[in-house]
Amino acid sequence: MRAQFVLSEISVGLRRNLTMTFAVIVSVALSLALAGGSLLAREQVSTMKGYWYDKVQVSIYLCNKNDATSDPNCDKGAVTAQQKREIKSDLKKLEVVEKVYHESADEAYNRYKKDFKESPLADSLTPDQMQESYRVKLKDPTKYRVLQTAFSGRQGVQEVQDQRGLLDPLFNLLNGMNIAALCVMTLMLVVALLLIVNTVRVSAFSRRRETGIMRLVGASSFYIQMPFILEAAIAGLIGAGFACVLLILGKYFLINNWLQERISLINFVGWDALIKVLPLIIAVGVLMPAAAAFITLRKYLKV
pLDDT for 202-234, tens place per residue? Predict the structure, then answer.
């Protein structure tokens, strides 16, 4: 009997405040979809960092004869054979170094011609204008400073360049977009909470006669509050369900069937990452409105 009464009160409450309940569902769905998207975006950025940072190298560019007059780091002239042997030997002694590759000027020239064949400079360059270099793969890419300290300013070394610096602007942009999404998500959650609070207040006011009678016959506060809390929880659950559907559709159509076909260099997050997020979305969708309703009722359900 009690369960039947609570269910009937929930049905009445949802019908009376249909427009506001719909607004709550939409705002909860959008805010939680943004929340799930932000979590997946963070996972994507972490995956990309791990993938690309593991592949980048530190390049130690050696002085050539053209640098002697144009670069103050090479004022002693082009690198000598003895200096090259010493640099390679010292590199292999460092514990942070995993592997050392030597690229000659001819190899650098051929690689440039292949990678930048459309460049107007490609036809005017000659092999002697290119720089020899040591490409160093580190066991831990974050230990770049060890190489920079050891070889910057050394005779025969023109520059020590960490390729991570080329990727950092991209990751900074992605992190900025993620922060922007989190700000929008926070705003939407605030809107959803305000709508929930207002919906509960209107529902409690419209049923103040029924709740007054229930109080007079000895019903407990929790029993009186239960229909209102469940109404908010059901609206939140429906909103969370829509948010999950939006995330699944976004993963399937936007990522799997559009981005992956056009950007093959990025290893996008898989379905496993999405499946981990969905239970959290549903839990927040149910608990957040229920908690907001409970707190609101403590203040406004005074009969």
Answer: 777 766 666 666 666 666 666 677 777 888 888
DSSP state of 63: P
Count the neighbouring beta carbons within 10 Å of the beta carbon of residue 292: 22
Report DSSP letters for 240-262, one per residue. Answer: HHHHHHHHHHIIIIIIIIIIHHH
Q: What is the largest CA-CA distance in the chain?
A: 99
- DSSP one-letter string for 143-187: GHHHHHHHHTT-TTEEEEEETHHHHHHHHHHHHHHHHHHHHHHHH
CA terminus-to-terminus distance, the chain? 23
Would the pLDDT of 14 be above 70? no
The amino acid sitting at 131 is Q
Is pLDDT above 60 for 7?
Answer: no
For residue 239, CA distances in Å to 72, 93, 224, 287 come to 64, 59, 25, 12
